[in-house]
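Field reference: sequence -> structure
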Amino acid sequence: MLAHVPAIEGQHPMRQERHPSHGSRQLRKRRLLSLAKSIESGPARDIPAAGPPAGPPPEQEWGMPQQRFGLADSRSLSFLSKEGHVVTSGALSDAEGQAARAELWKAIEDTSQTVRRNDPAT
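Structure field:
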């Protein structure tokens, strides 16, 4: 047996409006079910591969040309006179490079009371 629900004035007794939140609950439920199905099916297959970022390419750090020259490259002297510096690759062996870095750090630590090689906070 059906319970008697009083009719709202102007409406048919069998077509009373539902509570306003009832429809939004149903919509949320459908959206959640759709989301769950898409999660189960895995990532979307139509995601394009990442390309380069939009806009011009980034400027080089310090605004200086980044070039290295070999020991016998004659262009290094003209670069040095034009730019004021030059990077020469292969000038030292690995052992010589490590010794030079150690000597540099020793000189820095000897002249500074606050800078220490193994303490990045300084």
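Note: DSSP finds three helices and no strands in the chain.
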